[in-house]
Request: fold
Amino acid sequence: MRLGVTLAAVLAAAAFSLPAAAADPARGAVVAAERCAACHGMDGKSNVAEIPRLAGQQAGFITLQMILFREGIRQVPAMQAPTEKLSDTDVEAVAAYFASLPSAPPEDSTPRDAALMARGQAISAARNCGVCHLPNYAGRAQMPRLTHQHEAFLAHTMTEYRDGNRVGIDTQMNGAVQGLSDADIAALAHYLAHQD
Ligand code: HEC
Ligand code: HEC
Reply:
């Protein structure tokens, strides 16, 4: 219950501070160099499967996730120090910076597997993934870009939603992946990671 109250307060605060026009990508580049580049890369194109790619990620999504990390709601040890005492203005600036970078497919991309592609596409269609993430999976506002993300990270994070280990801004994603098998998740991750 306490978590629910905290989350509501965080989101109310975030909603107030979200006029994107105020975000300064130049200031964001300074924050990124100091706090993010070592892991995510200055170009936002991490080549480590466990570290998500941020280039071209939606600014609204980055902003909200940074607040969830900073407040200890989405609990990821690696993201504790980078978000500690980071002001809302700097959160929005660094989000604007990474959102402004062009995305590209990861270099560790696995070879395209026709059977996995077909299975992933069928599950995505049945579960309306493209309604929220858009048909090209580039995302919108607080709904993340999935295209050009690491396949292994997509599978890891969907498994966390399914098993209740990732707390997001709401429970929509827990519902979206409910009841999927590990093989279903692997097929979805493969399909999403191989969009152009
Ligand atoms: C010590 C390495 C490290 C540093 C430094 C770091 N991150 Fe991360 N970040 C990670 C890891 C690992 C994850 C994946 C967490 C998970 O498994 O869910 C992550 C996740 C994220 C996510 C969630 C992305 C998604 O697709 O779910 C965002 C946004 C993010 N980081 C932004 C930043 C920003 C902005 C900075 C600098 C202010 C930063 N990170 C600094 C390691 C780091
Ligand atoms: C009702 C809208 C909605 C639907 C339907 C939906 N999503 Fe999402 N998705 C979201 C939102 C919002 C988030 C961010 C939630 C959070 O705060 O963790 C998200 C997050 C994700 C993430 C995490 C990405 C990252 O970088 O951290 C993945 C992967 C994902 N969705 C895949 C899917 C798949 C696959 C489906 C279909 C099975 C799907 N989504 C259906 C809204 C939706």
About this structure: The chain has a mean pLDDT of 92. The pocket of heme C (ligand 2) is lined by residues 52, 124, 127-129, 131-133, 142-144, 146, 149, 154, 157-158, 168-169, 172-173, 176-177, 188 (CB under 6 Å).
